[in-house]
Amino acid sequence: MQKPEKSTDQNYIDIWSRLRQLTKNPLELFSVLKTALTTCKYRYILRCAGSGTIVGFNTNILNFSNVEIGENSLILDHVYMRAGANGHITLGGNVAINSFAKFFGHGGITVGNYSQIGPGSLLTTTQHDISNAMEVIYEPIELGEWVWVGANCTILSGVKIGDRTVVGAGSVVTKSLPANCVAVGVPARVIKYHNGDEPGQE
């Protein structure tokens, strides 16, 4: 499967269409203004979001000096990101994070270009050693490019997900997943590859 050309940027928001909607319902202007103010906060004041990136209102990015969001990305409303004092959250360009997603990046979270995270999903790099007085252990999460994580998924610490992999809605990813596959379930398991092969037939 060929990787899409980089020039095929994802247009998450049609600005002119949104402006036409405002003429039909002027109250939508309040939502647009709140988003504009939040975007200015993270792009120009805290400087953790790249040019062209839009950040929705009520999004909360803590430890912002350890957060880097690439260009032309979309962070929707009510997203929560906490990088931790020694961690990091790094999002590539043209990434989309849907509403109510949560990132706990104390061990480091990296999301590749063009990837999308569904609403309500949780990425946490923290676990505890039950045999050692619940000692906290941090392990990084790495998502490749063009990864699609469905709604309400949980991705646990130490997981790596390869390029162009799809994680079905509601899945819990406890182990790393290869590139070019579809994984679903609790825990998530590979059910097929993009070339049509099933696991064990590749």
Fold blueprint:
Layout: H1 15-24, H2 28-45, E1 54-55, E2 60-62, E3 67-69, E4 74-75, E5 80-82, E6 89-91, E7 96-97, E8 102-104, E9 109-111, E10 116-117, E11 122-124, E12 126-129, E13 135-138, E14 141-143, E15 148-149, E16 154-155, E17 160-161, E18 166-167, E19 172-173, E20 181-184, E21 189-193
Order of helices and strands, N to C?
HHEEEEEEEEEEEEEEEEEEEEE
As a percent range, the share of strand residues is: 25-35%
| SS class | alpha/beta
The CATH superfamily title: Hexapeptide repeat proteins
> How many domain modules?
1
Total strands: the figure is: 21
CATH topology: UDP N-Acetylglucosamine Acyltransferase, domain 1
Strand count, sense and closure of the main sheet?
8 strands, mixed
**Unreliable spans:** none
Task: Identify the notable features of this structure and list them briefly.
eight-stranded mixed sheet, single chain, 29% strand, alpha/beta, six-stranded parallel sheet
Notes on the structure:
The protein contains two helices and 21 strands. The chain is of the alpha/beta class and 202 residues long. The protein has a single domain, classed as UDP N-Acetylglucosamine Acyltransferase, domain 1, CATH 2.160.10. A hairpin with a 4-residue loop joins β20 and β21. The protein is globular, with a radius of gyration of 18 Å. The mean pLDDT is 90.
